[in-house]
Give the backbone structure.
Amino acid sequence: AQKVTQAQTEISVVEKEDVTLDCVYETRDTTYYLFWYKQPPSGELVFLIRRNSFDEQNEISGRYSWNFQKSTSSFNFTITASQVVDSAVYFCALSGMPGGSQGNLIFGKGTKLSVKP
Amino acid sequence: DSGVTQTPKHLITATGQRVTLRCSPRSGDLSVYWYQQSLDQGLQFLIQYYNGEERAKGNILERFSAQQFPDLHSELNLSSLELGDSALYFCASSVALAAANYGYTFGSGTRLTVV
């Protein structure tokens, strides 16, 4: 069965600190996709990144970076120089092949990040 | 605005009642997914429709049902409501059945409170 584990329930940092959110996944599919979403206090789900299982290149987007390692089934997310506006719940998600229940997203429990000024 | 419209944004109802949540997918998207976000269960997949047909079911209760209409909007019907059904219900749409290839667009959610 597919599973996503975000072991960190809550993280609190002070502004300008770097923070890494961990995500470990389980799947038997050889082709799959990994996602990160941000849920600010307003409640909507904001898409951050999608990565397919064949692309292990790390990605950087501004202060955000992602480290995908198939060998450890991890897809970690780092925020550099955190800001108060980064305070939110962050979800890692996995999607398998279409059909059955695998074409949808399997979400982790989320990590609540609080960035204090 | 993501392009996925969910109505109503908030709903308060009593136990035992029935409610209908509505989702209009992004223009051109054929696939609609429903998710439930509750404090104890987290974000869980409920059901998927593609071009009017049910394609996948997740942890959806028998008291819940959904459909997708010819104009591609979808409705999620929740009946015999219990306190534990209080949650944020999200709709997501995608252009294809193989949604992961193209990505998902989420609506802003309907917050249901059962009292």
Q: What stands out?
A: Chain A touches chain B through 26 residues (CB under 8 Å). The two ends of chain A are 41 Å apart (CA to CA).
